[in-house]
Amino acid sequence: MRQFYLSASFGVLASVLAGAAAAQTPPASQTGQAATVIDEVIVTAQRREQAAQDVGIALSVLSGDDLADRGVTNINQLQTATPNLEIEPAFGGGAAQFRLRGVGFQDYASNNAPTVGVYVNEVAYPVPVMTQGLIFDIDRVEVLRGPQGTLYGRNTTGGAISFVTRRPTDTPSAGIMAEYASFDALRVEGFVSGPIGDSVKGRIALSTQQGGAFQYNRDTGASLGDADRTGVRALIDWQASETVSFLLDVHGGIDKSENEGLYLLNPLVTRLGGPGSVLIPADSDHRATGWGVSPRFAAEMGRDLDAKPGRDNSSWGASLNANIDLGAMSLTSITSYETLDRSEFGDWDATASVEADTFFGSDVSVVSQEVRLASYNDGPLNWVAGVYYSKQELDERYSSDFIDIYGTYGQVSYAQQVESVSVFGQAEFRFNDAFKLIGGLRYEEETRDLDGFGTAFGGATALPPTSVSTKMTPMTGKVALEYTPSDNLLIYGSVSRGAKSGGFTTYNTGDASGIAPFRPEILIAYEVGFKSDPSPSLQINGAAYFYDYTDQQVLSAVYGVNGPVGRFANVPSSEIYGAELEGVWRPMDGLRIAQSLSYKHGEYTDFFDLDVPASRNAGMAVYADKSGQEIPFPAISYGGSASYDWMAGGFALTAEVNYSYRDEYPSWLGVKYDVPSYWLANASLTFSPSAGPWSATVFVRNLFDQEYDLTRNFFTSADIAQPGRPRTWGVRLSYQY
Q1: How do the domains of the chain map onto residue ranges?
Q2: pTM for the full model?
Q3: What's the CA gap between 86 and 102, in Å, rounded?
């Protein structure tokens, strides 16, 4: 019943804010408060430009400058800057595991769809490992919470993360930024932009990230974790006529970075305690790690015997966004092609012993085409309708070396094709100045084919090439009502239905039942919220929600000859509820304070499953009724920032601090894998000439040198964790004209 109490609390707060709104505070220009007015943020969350405060959905917006201040250079780091968002790395690298409002999917393989859609310039990245490139030259990122599908190309249950890059400029401009930090970390970005013809503008941006290794081999002292990645993006904006325009986006990247290492949570006896066994104590220093590779595995991967865990990935893609003004409506076409060539070696036992070494060799390509019609905003009815087609192809080798513990090694190979066609649309009808009704529908047909999935142990076939397929045809949609009693208060309520694709477990298995498809999950979301501006200097937004889950996809296990082996299962019934508050306040000239607080709780209401810890202890399959158990995710997240601007001696100075709290992350594997709660704080001081082209920043990240973990897990014999980065300091210089 707590969800109803939360809703009632927000209702009371909304009533108070409505009273404040009714007072109709005079505009800032009439009160001398112009310097304390909160800037309007424009978003395209609903496929058209709107003020964020006028959009009746829960969303967070971060500018490119916000990302720089927080040191965000990859998508995983967004979790410290966004309410209710967790992005968990898998064993120090590989695919990201997204969770938004508790809706997530834990998978270290490459082949399954995420619960959170990721977009760059309106192009979907439906394979999670494709999202791990550099973030650079970003105008803003919009994080939308709740099911999406009536406006976006993909259907998701958790939400969407949409990156919008900076566009070509009307006048010539160029800039460069260089950042140097602890552990010899270097990041350089640059761009050139401007007109290249009467109706053509262009922009090219380049970024590279190097160094930064903060971990060391406990045996040899060798470092681990150096970045070595570079990305480039070129945009061509062509205004072909008054009614026709094109935006071409060509981009690519190379990533030869070392992985972040893992440390031992508990002591490890290598080689099963037999002759020559070694006891490796648990790591008291979380920067310590270890790695090693067998000659056979090194040859299979094409690496040297002294190779460090790391990757050798390359990616590139292109998209063409065409817009035609048809008078009463616009026609938009988005054609895209994205590809990734992945080669990644991971040492998941974190020792020189070869007990859990892994290799992913993946070739991924995604072709998509979206066409949509949209009305112009000159009447009470506004609508968007479109069709979306996508085809994904994945060829993958997944190899595991257990030679020092089981005396064997595993090899998996398969191909997967995913083809999706959908029709979607959303309409808004404004009855009067106060009420707006919104409705949307989406119908989708998606087919997933797993072809030639085969496994071998020690070179001997365990499962001959086997093919399976699954299909989903969900009908999803949304109904919402918005109430605007005054210009500075919006109250909304919505019911939406989202779906996430089914799929396959592509881990080591000798049993065909191990790759039996799991079903799609369906989520019905009920949400109420408000957006308010009680005064020009204060902004408060909030939302409360209740999620009704059917067939939630969770990482479970089956019991095999070597113990529990991961496999995805469907939970017949579960639920999640929670609430969020966000606020921005500018109490005086130059001072800006932002805060966010979120809470969520989930539980399985009908679930009978393998008990992994009990099965490991008993040496046999043990099952348990998990109905009533909590869904494992952090309950509370808190974040905020404070900045102050002032002038001194002809220079503009900005002091900024931001901070975040992440609650304990309980693990489905047992309490020893729970990730403890932690606080993080960053600080910076920036100065520049009041009218000059350059700026200089001194910053400290993880200001209080908090020791924390990003994830904890086990693989075969080793209980491991991935540590977060320790305190780092640095300087950043920027020049732009």
Answers
A1: 2-736
A2: 0.90
A3: 8
Scan for tokens 């869904």, then name that residue: 631
233 neighbors 204 (Cβ within 8 angstroms): yes
CA separation for the pair 107, 364 (Å, rounded): 17
- Pairing label, strands 159-165, 116-120: parallel
pLDDT of 53 over the 90 cut: no
Residues belonging to the chain: 737
Q: In angstroms, rounded to a whole number, what is the distance separating the alpha carbons of residues 129 and 344?
A: 11
Of the candidates 408, 506, 403, 504, the residue with the CA atom closest to the CA atom of residue 454: 506
Structure tokens of 68?
Answer: 């720089």
Q: What confidence score (pLDDT) does residue 473 get?
A: 93
What sign does the dihedral 676-128-77-105 (CA atoms) show?
Answer: negative
Closest CA to 45 of 585, 488, 489, 426: 426
Positive/negative CA dihedral, 659, 665, 671, 673: negative
| 25, 64, 174 from 36: Cα distances, Å | 14, 22, 31
- The topology under which CATH files domain 2-736 is Maltoporin; Chain A (2.40.170)
- Nearest-CA neighbor of 515 among 608, 457, 453? 453
How many CA atoms lie within 13 Å of 575's alpha carbon, on the beta-carbon side? 13
Residue type, 180: Y
CB 458 within 8 A of CB 408: yes
Question: Rounded to an integer, what distance in angstroms lies between the CA atom of residue 529 and that of residue 6?
Answer: 11
**Angle, CA 671 vertex, CA 668 and CA 674 arms, to 5°:** 75
**DSSP code string of 620-658:** S--EEE-TTPBP-S-SEEEEEEEEEEEEETTEEEEEEEE
- The residues that bridge with 156 in the sheet, in sequence order, are 148
Owner of token pair 């394979």 = 127
Name 463's bridge partners: 455
SS in 3 state form for 493-504?
A: EEEEEEEECCEC
CA distances from 213 to 96, 182, 184, 505, 562 (A): 20, 9, 8, 33, 35
The DSSP-derived string for 14-71 is HHHHHHHHHT-PPPHHHHT-GGGPPPP-EE-TTSS-EEGGG--S-EEEEEHHHHHHTT
Tell which residue, 439, 422, 430, 321, has the closest CA to residue 44: 321
Pairing mode, strands 475-486 and 435-457? antiparallel
305-319 residue pLDDT tens: 999 999 999 999 999
Q: Strand, coil or helix: what is 69?
A: helix
Q: CA separation (Å) from 619 to 612, 613, 687?
A: 10, 10, 62
Task: Note the pLDDT tens digit of each residue in 419-451.
Answer: 999 999 999 999 999 999 999 999 999 999 999
Tell me the three state secondary structure of residue 702.
coil
Q: Which amino acid is at 476?
A: T
